[in-house]
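During data preparation, we tokenized the protein backbone, and the record follows.
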Amino acid sequence: MITLMLNGLEVKAEEGWTLLETARFYGLEIPTLCYNEGLSPFGGCRLCLVEVGEEPRTKLVSSCTYPAEEGLIVRTDTKRVIDARRMMIELMLSVAPYSKKIQDLASKFGVTGMRFKVRNEECILCGLCVRMCAEQMDGRAIGFQNRGHNKKISTPFNLRSEECRLCGGCMYICPACQLRCQGPQADTDVCNACLTMDPTCLDVYNELQCWMYDAGRCGTCVREAPAGEKKK
């Protein structure tokens, strides 16, 4: 067993565990996007960043790829960590603003605007589809091409791969394929409809099962205004 400090508490971890696995074992929530338990760790989205080391010489590392080490000091929710996660969410939003999963992350972490130009490339290069195709579907029909800002995911020579069985696994796991509630013609780049999750729907619609309906119907996203008052 490995002994380390996690948010000021001494904890034990199994040999071979990552910091993400250790934190989740002790009930600590660390956001992820490119991580999936059934796939190899990638560390591409950087949402799972944690701060390791002692002040003033600490560093940010991706918890899904960083191994638990003896005596390591780890903090999962410092201001530096939260600011870095918000920055990554902004970057991903600028690339794929129509992704429901990324919009939900923005609401969860209080990201209400973007400082980057919206590109609408519909791919955040998380690599989930590549790993799903290779590791779960045994297809290896797609992969990364080029480097830097020209990096993309495609088939060899951009031709239809003979290895592709049209299983749909890549689309199933892709976060950019999960269209936001407002659809492709949304008025704003950042939704924030779920910025507050207080259950106001009980007071308005007399039930709490808001996830069964379209955005706003439950009253959480769009409050029912009293007579004579404009909706906010």
In short: The beta strands are 2-6, 9-13, 49-52, 59-62, 73-75, 143-145, 152-154. The chain has six helices and seven strands. The first strand starts at residue 2 and ends at 6.
